[in-house]
Amino acid sequence: MTYDHADEVKNLAKKYGFQMRLIPMNNTHHAQLSELVIGKDLSWLDALEKIQEKAPDYLLVERGCS
Question: Which residues of 7-33 are buried (b: 16+ CB within 10 A; e: fewer)?
């Protein structure tokens, strides 16, 4: 499960013996932030390659107002 990257959450996870990993996430406004993945055994997460969205195959052109 994921949680906000907050000290209170990390302290509880440590207290009860959970493992934690930070992962990048995008919110609904496309801003990148980090979320905390918490679980008893996160070895499967360490084995994953970096996951990213495919780069778009089109170009965005900025247009000035005239």
Answer: eeeeeebeeeebeeeeeeeeeeeeeee
Residue 11 corresponds to which tokens in the numbers above?
Answer: 């302290």
The greatest distance separating any two alpha carbons of the chain, rounded to the nearest whole angstrom, comes to 61
Closest CA to 53 of 32, 39, 35: 32
Q: What is the tens place of the pLDDT at every residue in 14-42?
A: 999 999 988 888 777 878 888 888 999 98
Is the pTM higher than 0.90? The answer reads no
Q: Map out the domains of the chain as residue ranges.
A: 2-46
